[in-house]
Design brief:
The protein has 241 residues and is α/β, with parallel strands linked by helices. It folds into two domains: 1-114, Aldolase class I (TIM Barrel, Alpha-Beta Barrel); 140-235, no CATH class. It has twelve helices and eight strands. The strands form two sheets. Strands 1-2-3-4 form a four-stranded parallel β-sheet. It has a four-stranded parallel β-sheet with strand order 5-6-7-8. The longest helix has 13 residues, at 34-46. The radius of gyration is 17 Å and the shape is globular.
Length: 241
């Protein structure tokens, strides 16, 4: 039911394709049964109004073995629409470099590496994620503190998946006017707008676009560019014939 509601809500906002993070690390930590839950999500997605792919997310501070288990499940479900493996959680308690072997396993299994980094921790967290083969960076807002990193992201066209409301709600940015989304965009860093967790942060994708327009002065053409970025940097988007 949750999956159906989410996909219909996304379709109603004009979304053509979605890559959805599933917090498999939290599910396993709670000792909830993976297979029946993912079976239900997969079945609901198959009947949904838009195509969906999944990213299995581990929790950094839970340690290496739980993260490895999430990566193995992602690899096992590669043929079921799972395209990526990511890590979230406390960057200081689980730096990306300790997960590099797990990233390598996931890459060898045909998965994309999609970690959160540079949300609460500094640019070094993003560098470590990139060294682990990250295809995109979740959040990544602290890149603004390192001009060389900004240049690297721009020159190599590595996108940041930014969630403005999430960053305010979690306190990693104290006020809207201090959020670096505008400065990163103006510096040429590829950016996509995202919701992170819509119910938790009381937002929608349209709300995030409205924030970009109202508070950061993104023009209609710049908003179109953000929308194009979402499709251009999607990992398995196939335009309708």
């Amino acid at each position: 039911l949750v999956t159906r509601r989410l996909l219909h809500a996304l379709a109603g906002q004009g979304v053509l394709y979605a890559e959805i993070n599933l917090s498999i690390g939290v599910l396993l930590w709670r000792n909830q049964p993976f297979h029946p839950i993912f079976d239900a999500i997969e079945a609901a997605a198959a009947e949904g109004p838009i195509p969906v792919r999944f990213i299995f997310d581990a929790v950094r501070q839970f340690g290496l073995e739980p993260a490895s288990k999430v990566a193995r499940l992602a690899a096992q479900c590669r043929h079921r629409g799972v395209i990526g493996f990511g890590i979230g959680g406390d960057e200081t308690r689980g730096p990306a470099e300790i997960f590099h072997d797990i990233f390598a396993f996931a890459r060898d299994a045909g998965l994309h590496i999609l970690p959160h980094a540079g949300e609460a921790d500094g640019p070094k967290s993003i560098w470590a994620a990139l060294e682990g083969g990250a295809a995109r960076i979740g959040h990544g807002i602290r890149a603004i503190d390192d001009p060389l990193l900004v240049q690297h992201l721009r020159d190599h066209q590595i996108p940041l998946d930014i969630s403005i409301s999430s960053n305010i709600c979690t306190g990693v940015v104290d006020r809207l006017e201090n959020h670096p989304v505008r400065r990163l965009f103006d510096a040429g860093v590829p950016i996509t707008l995202n919701t992170d967790d819509p119910p938790m942060f009381h937002t929608t994708l349209l709300d995030e676009y409205q924030l970009a327009h109202t508070h950061f002065g993104f023009s209609r053409e710049e908003l179109r560019q953000l929308a194009r970025n979402s499709l251009n940097f999607a990992l398995d988007y196939r335009p309708a014939a």
